[in-house]
């Protein structure tokens, strides 16, 4: 966000920060979310690169197509273990998985919020 825009928002009563700040995530929670997103993105990338449908991948991992869809979007119900097991099924090595989770998180756009009657409201 441009500094001028940030100053203008803050002057109007808006609070500017990261999504993790807005959601109240701890550093550990933010790290886990970042790792899940990276692993999920790689699952989708490898699946598509191998021209495998979600249904075909589901059969390979003993699951359902809807579960693979959730897996690829890093749904909160998907475990890190399932993400890693799926990557191994797609041919990823232990070293490749290590590199995926150790990558720097994608730069986040600041979240913007304003207090209203004691409650934080998000505005897009």
Automatic annotation (TrEMBL):
This is Helix-turn-helix. SMART domains: HTH_XRE. Residues 99-124 are annotated as: Disordered. The lineage of its organism: Bacteria, Pseudomonadati, Planctomycetota, Planctomycetia, Planctomycetales. It comes from Planctomicrobium piriforme. One of its GO terms (molecular function) is DNA binding. Residues 106-117 have a biased composition (Basic residues). Pfam families: HTH_3. It comes from the Bacteria. Residues 43-97 form the HTH cro/C1-type domain.
